[in-house]
Amino acid sequence: MKNPNASLITKLTLVVLVKLVLLAGLWWAFFHEQRVTVDAKLVSDQFLSSSRASDNNGEPP
Amino acid sequence: MISNELVDLSRLQFAATALYHFLFVPLTIGMVWLLVIMESVYVMTGNVVWKDMTRFWGKLFGINFALGVTTGITLEFQFGTNWAYYSHYVGDIFGAPLAIEGLMAFFLESTMIGLFFFGWDRLSKPQHLLVTVLMAVGTNLSALWILIANGWMQNPVGAEFSDQTMRMEMTDFWAVLFNPDAQAKFVHTVSAGYTTGAMFVMSISSWYLLKKRDVAFAKRSFRVAAAFGLASVLSVIVLGDESGYTVGEAQQTKMAAMEAMWETKPAPAGLTLLADINEAEQKNNWEVEVPWVMGLIGTRSVTKEIPGIHDIKAKNRERIASGVVAVTALEALRANRDDAAAKQVFERHKADLGFGLLLKKYVVDVRQATPEMITQAVNDTVPQVTPMFWGFRIMVGLGFAMLLLFGLAFYSTLKSNFMDKPWLLKAALWMLPAPWLACELGWFVAEYGRQPWTIYGVLPTHLSVSTLSVNSLYGSLAGFIGFYTVLLVVEMFLMVKFARMGPGSLGTGRYQSESGSSFATAHA
User: Fold this and answer.
1) Per-domain residue ranges for chain A?
2) Which of A3, B70, B103, B161 is the most interior residue, by most CB within 10 Å?
């Protein structure tokens, strides 16, 4: 006798596979070439003052 | 200079959304294990009332999950929209557990929730139970990864600042994963969720019992919730103690503020039960103290001291001075990568870099900070004591009140006489808000107590915010509060509606709330 759960498992497997393919497709189409560059200067400008270090390399006078 | 209004509004927006989110989360975390228990009994006994219990409480769980998830998604987006510099500075470490949470836990949880609701007639009993267990595992794994991320904010281990990329970079994933702060927070938080779930089921069951409706259903639910709740609240208290110990180790300012400990006391320090806190003069006008207890909780020893606020501030003043040196050396390094002398100075002082950056709240060039600015920055390093002290005590008080309630409820279930104790049922009903209040206060103490840092000792809050306009923040804040309030009203409406309908809402024809039913009375 055919196991009724087998049909469900097949359907669920198919649905999950379709979902994965669709997600991979979306990622490939829209995101895979996108790269977030790390802009150290941006943070540097925000966190540090614009003036440069003194001649004593930062040691307190 | 970054406007304080911008920082305050960004903090308020995140705090508001996080506190709303955590109205939903603990119930999801806790109820899911109650569903596992109920369904396990159904699978083992075949008694259909346990299936009905799983389905009915599962329905309330589903309402909460559907509305709760939406409130959490915005939090993750806010790291990018409102906390862009934070995301840049620590995104490499902080982003990893959040991504794993989405990929591993949330996907598992969401998939299994679909099968839980729609698989009753298509899966065998053991298969469906497996789905429920996996749903519970997914929910708790989700909490694990979020709390690993949060634990790193409290105790940033396994990472190092890079002067080349100007951000923190992960050096040891396992240190981040097994961060003692994160592990202690995880077990404490999920136990609080279990307590919330148990209180929810016990309170509503008590209401049915007081109304003498669906008695067989309500009695079983009450018993399960009382036993699970007692175990959970005991875990919350024991694991909360562990969480307190990790705070004492890694976040001395938070511990000192929670305890209103202005001066370092001889070891082992006493636990201040009550105090009249005088923030202006930085002292307690009077206090009620239990000897030794704080020392034992905070240090696990009778010889180690817990530093008081004044000593912590003195130490932080030194760290701010050292931090100014670190900032200055870093600037030199940024100007000339090959400056070996600056590199050497920076390496010596970089542990205090964040302390130097605290001055950026008051001055653009930290080397120009006046003694008054330095004093202000030193004062900033300790959060306001009064809200910390009382927030913590109310949370603990609620925890012990729930311990008493669950203890009495469990004892009464053993004696099978809880039906004869309307005062107990009424107490269980009126205590319904207690776990939520305790959870919210717990998060308040954890997060407000971390100030003035987003990453404790590393990144000041005022440097973490995005450069948004204040007006846009007022707008989005109003939008969030409005939207979330609607969600909360919808949740309350649906919860009350289905709780009132009771198991009759399943449409099985077996319950009193349905016409022509005689099951409940027959099986009472």
Assistant:
1) 5-55
2) B161
In the Cβ-directed half-sphere of B50, how many Cα atoms lie within 13 Å? 18
Instruction: State how far the Cα of B504 lies from the Cα of B474, in Å rounded to an integer.
Output: 45
| Closest Cβ opposite residue B332 in set A12, A43, A52 | A52
Alpha helices in B82-179 (DSSP H): 84-100, 107-118, 125-154, 173-177
Considering only CB atoms, A44 lies closest to which of B326, B334, B344, namely: B334
The ipTM assigned to this model is 0.71
Selected for mutation to probe chain A from B127, B166, B373 (highest A CB count within 10 Å) is: B166
Query: CB–CB of B122 and A8 under 8 A?
Result: yes
pLDDT digits (tens, 9 = 90+) for B102-150: 888 888 888 899 899 999 988 999 999 999 999 999 999 999 999 999 9
Residues with Cβ within 8 Å of residue B354, at least 6 apart in sequence: B323, B453, B455, B457, B458, B459, B460
3-state secondary structure B394-452: HHHHHHHHHHHHHHHHHHHHHHCCHHHCHHHHHHHHHCCCHHHHHHHHHHHHHHHCCCC
Give Rg (Cα) of chain A: 28
